[in-house]
User: Fold Lipoyl synthase, mitochondrial from Goodea atripinnis.
Amino acid sequence: MALLKQSCYVAGRFSTGHLSLSPRSTPHVYTSCLTTAVKSSADREDRKKELQSQDGPALQDFISGELSEKSKWAEYRGNLKRQKGERLRLPPWLKTEIPIGKNYNRLKNTLRDLSLHTVCEEARCPNIGECWGGGEYATATATIMLMGDTCTRGCRFCSVKTARQPRPLDPDEPNNTAKAIAAWGLDYVVLTSVDRDDIADGGAEHFAKTVSSLKERNPNIVVECLTPDFRGDLAAVEKISLSGLDVYAHNVETVRELQRYVRDPRANFDQSLSVLKHAKKAKPSLLTKTSIMLGLGESDQQIINTMTELRAAGVDCLTLGQYMQPTKRHLKVEEYVPPEKFAYWEKVGNDMGFAYTASGPLVRSSYKAGEFFLKNLLKKRAEISAAEPEAS
Assistant:
């Protein structure tokens, strides 16, 4: 068990949600300026024993909203909304232990041997436990970040390295990725990437080759691609949509009104919406998915409006999680959203008709992706395929 001392929500397209080696994070436990520093190993051990003795919350508590019913959290009186010049302290529901699954080291070593990247290694996100532990399908799911560890964009919420000209793509990466995943015997894999605006198609062909290589080796594996926006290039979106994948994910990150403030200027809400719409248009049986970070200063009405637009665009799955400031150079947390409010947004999403809404303080973009898809969405995909008109 690793004691989480810092949370970094740098989800973005790699991000939210994960049961993944979640976007932008490392297979280490990171210490953040948002939490109380542990000054000695003795203090750390004492704190760890204290947490364990308190019968602390499970991850499902965060998602269900049951956390708010526990008196030790309900009595919290710290500030949840930031005042000018203030830095918010981490509330108790975000201080928890992250379980590391038994296969974590084995899979991590395989990745390194094949020069592959995981979201955890690049994203500095606290989602380690979702990657390899907990849940019926947790040891059968992974998230791999393609196309290197350096992004051509500079979103204000994300701590991934940036450069105008990252290293050229590794032509062996699609095959190496398929080789590694075949060796693991996974049921579900999430493929994500940095933005590569330096490449003509943004790396879409690289994505497509990886998916097709995976499907050739294991036709039964479920593949989700969490992609960039490819600068609005719908031909690139279509290339991936038709590559054999099962779930097309692209994160809008925040509400429409905060796009320019949060994301790189080359990204915007309408462009992201067009990606999600076209993925579904190119292949109606695809499930589409996106993620929103809360706590950046958005209003309730803005969240409702954003969810309404996403549903109108045919998006099937939505995740909502707490934004966490990765470094002092990045956007400050404007508000820590309490667990009961996340539970409210989950209900709103379900009432709107999303096939799947995951909403909680620790939820990331691929949260419980494998478990949910394998349990619930295969049937939906079959129904959509049956409803498609036969090719003439």
